[in-house]
Every structure is written in C-alpha cells, then in structure tokens.
UniProtKB/TrEMBL annotation:
The chain crosses the membrane at residues 6-24, 45-65, 71-91, 115-136, 142-168, 180-200, 231-252, 264-287, 307-326, 352-372, 378-402, 409-427, 433-454. It comes from Amoebophilus asiaticus (strain 5a2). Keywords: Membrane, Transmembrane, Transmembrane helix, Transport. This is Na+/solute symporter. The keyword Phosphoprotein does not apply. Belongs to the sodium:solute symporter (SSF) (TC 2.A.21) family. One of its GO terms (molecular function) is transmembrane transporter activity. The keyword Heme does not apply.
Length: 485
C-alpha cells in the first residue's frame, strides 16, 4: 500500500510537469522566444527558476554524504555557492552591454571573435551535458530507493519526460515547471528536517557533535594536504560568479539589470535557507547515528523516517530538484549549439527552431547514455566543470570587470587553462587534488601575462556602454559596437 501510494503521487507529479511544460511553451515562435522568452518574467518567477536551477538533486545525495563525512570541509563551500549567487547579482550591474545577447557564447564572440564564441559554446554544451547526466543519475537512484523500480527502462522513461517538455516548450516551459518544482522541494526539505529532529530522543547530541567531532573544527582545514587543497578549490569554485550558460541566461531573461540583481540577491537568501536545512539534516543523522555509511544515508532516511505520505514527498522533492536543474541545462545546451555553432558556421539558415528541438532530443539522449555508464556523481561534475570553468569563466569575468584584451591573448589563456587541467588529470590525478582551480589560475596568468608581454591592445578600460572587439597585432583592429539599451 505504501508503494502504490508513493507511485501514484509520483506519476501524477511527472504527468503534471509534462502537461504544464508543454502548455507553457505554446507561444514559442523563434529562437529568441525559445531561449529567453519575451523578458516579461516577474522577479518572483526569476528568483524561483534561479534557485531551482542552482540546487540540483545531487544536493540531497552527494551533499548529505559529504556533510556527514567531511563536516566543515563541505559545509563552507556549500554555503559559499550562495555567496556566489549573491556576487553574481552584484556583478550584473556591470553587464548592461551583454543584454542583447542570447547566451554567453554570443557575448564572448562579440568580444573576441568567432573562434572564442565556438569554443565557449562547446565548453557550455559539455557543461550542460554533464549537469544533465548528474540529474538523470539522481532520478535513477530515487526511482530505485523509493519506488522499487529497477533497470534502465524506468530511468529512460523519467528522463524522456524532462527531455520532451524542455525540447518542445523552450525557456517558458522550463521556467514554469521550475516554479512548480521549486515549491515541491521547498516544502519537502524543511518537513524532512523537522521529522528527523522530532524523532531524535536526545536532541542535545547535535550540539555535542558540533562541539566535539573533529570534522567541525576549523583546524582540520588548515595545512598542506589533499583535504585542505580540495576544500580551497571547492570554496573558490563556489564563491566565484561562474557565469555558466544557465546563470548567464537568467540574467538576460530579466527585464533589466535591476530586476536581475534583485532576483539573484533573493535567490542567494533562499538558497542559504535551503542549504541550512540540508546541513541540519546531515548533522542530525551524524549525531544520532555516527557509524552509518555516508553513501547510504538516503537509504537510511527512507527506511527509518518515511511514513506513507513522506515517502512519496521525499521522492517528489528530490526528483523536483533534479528536474529543475536538468531542464535548464538541456535548454541552454541546445540553444548554444544552434545559436553559437551552427549559425556562425553557416551550416543551416532555415528551420532553426526545428533544428534546436531535434538537438535538444539528441543532447538529452547523449546525457542519458552518460548517466547510465558513469557511476560517480562527483566525477561527472568535475569532468563537465573542467571543460568550462578553466576555459571560459576567467576571460568572461575579466571582461565584466572591465579588462579587455585581444583574441590572441584570450585564446592563449583558454588553451593554458585546458592544457593545465588535462596535464594534471593525466600525470597528477593520483594526488587526489582537483585540477579545476589550477586550470583557472593558469588561464588568468597566461591571459594577463600574454596581454602585457605581447603588448596587446586593451587593458583595464572599465564598464562599456558599447562593446568593442579589440583586434590582434596580426590583423588590423576591428570594432563591433552594440548599444545595450
């Protein structure tokens, strides 16, 4: 009876998402509608879709496991991601010149040329596919743990629902379902925390655990070791305004910079609350049961704290977190492929909407295959992140803060970031230290270094109302001006 009730609730939830998503996407007429809509979203809707995209299903699986086993070494970087959202909101004031762009790759192309645009697009697509695969893995795990469904067939069926409404409905469908999913996991996480808190017979154990367990001591994070290095890497990764495709997309979806700043500021506050509930769940589990396997915490919660109604709510809540991130990654990846690879190369000039939807189906299927083959969520995350953060984030953030260089210097920096990550993974992977931060530092050093050593044009020119594409010494300076109002 418990299984049938949970299954019915879950089936209704999936079907409702499919219908809502398809109905919301009926007004899509062109690629601009598909990618950013008509810029008529309310601040509340933008806030909800930002939070829903930012907090994925891995937070309740991978996140809980690391809170339980690593304590502050994971809690601080996790909360740091909320600071990253806040900082993203603050830097939007400097992004007026980018509001005419559909996506981040187009912005990079206007700044540094076609090759930089295509590289950024490929990096963003790989990021999106990795993120999509992670969420599909989460969906598969929840279907097995809560609903007892086994085999890849069920995972494929659930993934197809996400792929279909995202592929055919565009960003309006994504945003509408994100709001729906935001309320689903926004209700589930606090309720679960309260249920676990009420079931503990000795609540003071939580305070005692925080005071005595070494994983909650700041001393454990200080030193020259793998744990400290990874802590610092993930902290930098978390607080950096990453400007990944979905983040950039939410900014240009806004009615203006003021609304974008407000939405990201509100989203940062909401995400802190959500993360604090998740952190509190992990601490309560550790205090009450210090000998559990971190990888089986969700199994333990389901077996020990799930009533008839709560079991279905857990499933819906976690899968909502996964779906709300997955649909955004799929939408951004498909638009990047069409707008920033196909169009610049002049491969197809007609039926762009049809091509976008077909590519969304293809990229979704590819991510599904990746999810079925790879087992470790963290490996997928770091793999996809390594193709974006060390390549794109550095020159883009420098441009936002007012530093411009030439195409040559930017490509040197991008190459250095990628080569550093590749070299480290091949030759130094056994150290256990993540290469993502090293790649970003290499990009920064080589970009700035090559700019001044080669005496390139540009430098710290400040916030621009018009965009300038600075030429390299190998070619005459070119300019591309676009008024952002």
């Amino acid at each position: 009876m418990i299984l049938s009730t949970s299954t019915v609730l879950f089936s209704i939830f999936l079907f409702a998402n499919l219908i809502v998503g398809l109905l919301a996407g009926r007004r899509v007429k062109n690629l601009r509608d598909y990618s950013i809509g008509n810029r008529d979203f309310s601040t509340g809707a933008l806030t909800a879709t930002i939070v829903a995209t930012w907090i994925g299903g891995g937070t309740m699986i991978y996140g809980l496991a690391n809170i339980y086993s690593n304590g502050l070494g994971f809690i601080i970087p996790l909360l740091g991601t909320s600071l990253g959202l806040l900082l993203t909101g603050l830097v939007t004031d400097r992004m007026g010149e980018f509001l005419n762009n559909l996506f981040v790759a187009e912005a990079m192309g206007d700044l540094y040329g076609k090759l930089a645009r295509i590289i950024t697009a490929f990096s963003g697509i790989l990021w999106g596919i990795g993120g999509l695969a992670i969420q599909f893995k989460v969906v598969a795990k929840i279907l097995t743990l809560i609903f007892g469904f086994e085999g890849p067939g069920v995972t494929i069926a659930a993934a197809l629902i996400i792929i279909i409404y995202s592929a055919f409905g565009g960003i309006r469908a994504v945003t509408t379902t994100d709001i729906f999913q935001f309320f689903a996991f926004g209700i589930f996480v606090p309720i679960l925390a309260l249920v676990i808190w009420n079931s503990i017979k000795e609540p003071h154990k939580a305070i005692y655990t925080l005071a005595t367990n070494p994983i909650f001591s700041f001393k454990e994070l200080i030193g020259w070791n793998t744990k400290s290095a990874n802590f610092l890497t993930f902290l930098i990764y978390g607080i950096t305004p990453t400007m990944v495709p979905a983040v950039f997309q939410r900014i240009v979806m806004a009615q203006g910079l003021t609304q974008a700043r407000k939405a990201y500021t509100y989203a940062a506050g909401v995400s802190v609350l959500m993360f604090l509930f998740v952190i509190w769940i992990g601490i309560l589990l550790l205090a009450n049961n210090p000998n559990l396997s971190p990888n089986n915490l969700l199994n333990f919660i389901i077996d020990n704290y799930s009533y008839t109604w709560l079991k279905g709510l857990i499933g819906i809540g976690i899968i909502s977190m996964a779906m709300s991130t997955a649909d955004s990654d799929l939408n951004s990846s498909a638009v990047l492929f069409v707008n920033d690879i196909i169009k610049p190369l002049g491969i197809f000039n007609k039926n762009l909407m049809l091509i976008t939807r077909v590519l969304a189906l293809v990229l979704g299927a590819f991510a599904l295959l990746l999810a079925l083959r790879m087992q470790d969520l963290l490996s997928i995350l770091l793999l996809s992140g390594s193709f974006y953060m060390p390549i794109v984030s550095v020159p883009l953030l420098l441009a936002i803060f007012g530093f411009r260089s030439t195409t040559r210097a930017v490509l040197i920096g991008m190459s250095a970031g990628f080569i550093t990550v590749l070299w480290w993974e091949i030759f130094m992977g056994k150290t256990g230290i993540n290469s993502l931060g090293l790649g970003m530092v290499a990009n920064l050093i080589f970009l700035i270094g090559s700019h001044y050593i080669l005496q390139e044009q540009g430098g710290w020119i400040g916030i621009q109302k018009k965009r300038t594409l600075i030429g390299s010494k190998a070619s005459p300076p070119r300019s591309l001006e676009k008024v952002y109002w």
